[in-house]
Amino acid sequence: MTTLRFDDEAGPLNRTMTITSRLLRTALATSMLATSALALSAATTTPTVGALDDTPWTLPVTPPRCSVAQAESGDVADCLMVFYDDPSETGWGLPPAPGVGPGWNWQGYWYNGSVALTDWERTQIVTNTESVAGMSPGTLQFHKYSQPLFEGFLNEIEENGYDVQYAVGYSFRCMNSSGGWSCPSGDPDDLSNHAWGLAVDFNSATNPIRSYAGIDGKTACQTPMETDMPRWVIQTAEKWGLYWGGYGWNSGCQSTTTQRTTVFRDPPHFEFRGTPEMAAAIAAHNMENDPRRQCFETVTDDGATVEQCNLTGVPEAEWRLPVDTDAPAGATAAMINLTATRSSAAGHLSLETCGPVDDHGTSAVNFGPGETAAAMAVVPVDADGRFCVYRSTAVHSVVDVVGYLTDSGERLWFEPSAPERLLDTRLTETRAPVADQAAAQVPTDDTAARIANLTVAASQGPGHAQAAKCADVNTTPFSNINYVEGTTRANMVLLDNDVDGSCVWVHTATHVIVDELGRLLTQDGLGWQVDAARRALDTRLCTEAFCGDKPSGGDAFEVDLGVDAPAAAVTLTITGATAPGHAWAGPCDELVDGVAPTSNVNYVPGSAVANMAVVAPSDGIVCVYLHADAHVVIDVQAELVDDRTVGLRPVTPDRVHDSRER
């Protein structure tokens, strides 16, 4: 831990001076994708400090300063967290020099969203995924390690009767005293704590920022300031480790007897002046006795198992949750259906080893706010049959195992085939959808299991579908695909089969389409080679694989998967669509007059959607066809090889992980 330079003189800070304009006070912080970890919850917490006297605290008196030991314990309710340290030297990250070099866009109040800040905002700044003090998700940003403190404070004072009308947290700008918010000096030392996401301003209309002079020869510390904040609000802030600007800058007032000619008070401003470790300790201490506290076993990027707790009951951004598949001996991977549900912000789930990882560069399923989304995947398991699920934003995860890849015992080999439509209820004699709580049998000419693409269309309400042996559907809690009214969604499935056939069961009436992609055979076919997922394409980035404008609808383009195998299992993700459409990935020679024969993914604007596909490249090359303009992301999950060592053993679908249940 960094050694803190500690000033024993009781009193306020002299670093951040803030003047909040009317437009800044009402502006909402710029939304962005947040991939940073939250150490602890940012939700509401324990009852507020002391009795609630709502009299404005116009002549405040500072408590004694916290010692390092108090700060590290997390119990700071009776002291002031004030350590004079540069945030970049105490674990909060080193921001780019403000306004220096290309990529800066001054928006009148901040540089937020500038290209030059892309890495800074991606790695350090997070956005609220739940409502905070009545403010909507996606409107308030802080540093990833300070977010629990600020959101906990704001939620608590709102719950106890103080009306937070607006708030601004992260704001990449300089202190006004340095020559201007736009940082004309270009010196990072002039940055406000807002630039680190370590400060918040709110309700400045009723808490004006101004200098006060002494009256009738008295000290300025006896001049009442204008504020609507009662003492209990400030005490609550201090319980969360936050310093109040109402005490004053440039030494300010420790009490009404402190001798000052003038004092500059900043009552809408609160900031954190400790280390990330102290922030975590304070959040943990405040959460410890709250009855809403829920804990999860998580795995850090270093591979260490850590219990992490929050008050929302939803695993948070960048948490990795281990999944025990109870795999049989000899299993090297699992074939699963991965579902994300109860999200409040867009994001994705990734499948990873539970060992150390350097980054989270792939995705297996994407979801939007409030969506439940599912995708099939193949994931390696360790010697204990485990893998980890990483989330980019707060969301629940559900895992249903449908098979294991193993090098011993009974195994099936994959025989790819040109897509063949087995079932389309829109084209049956009655043209009727599958009814509520009913199943449709999938016609096949033998009892071999299939890998298929399952699509639901014109759904009559929210529900889910199961695809399995007819004897296994609607018997255990698993799902292959989730849907809402009027949507079209697709997911790859392992369609197990026997003499009684295979079926698709639906919870709510919907049309069902099943396209066979290949069979699973006992004698012929391809084996599996499974490694950690690898990103082969991301058209949002300029890379060796692709560098250009967003791929156009109505066209196909080649992609080098970097494989030397007859087939590969990939996750195909579509994002940034300009219009509704569908996408297909497969052999280039299967295109008919440049048009795809079928589809793997259906998409709409404003949402990212993923599906697994099995493709047969030629010299590593496949084609991707888009119906409408969109960006394309492809992650290679496995190769299907001539060596029949590792094969697939289907099992009755088994729910092995559900973060909603603990």
From TrEMBL:
InterPro entries: Peptidase_M15C, Zn_M74/Hedgehog-like
Gene Ontology terms for molecular function: carboxypeptidase activity
One Pfam family here: Peptidase_M15_4
Keyword set, alphabetical order: Carboxypeptidase, Hydrolase, Protease
Peptidase M15C domain ranges (all copies): 188-250
Protein name according to UniProt: D-alanyl-D-alanine carboxypeptidase-like protein
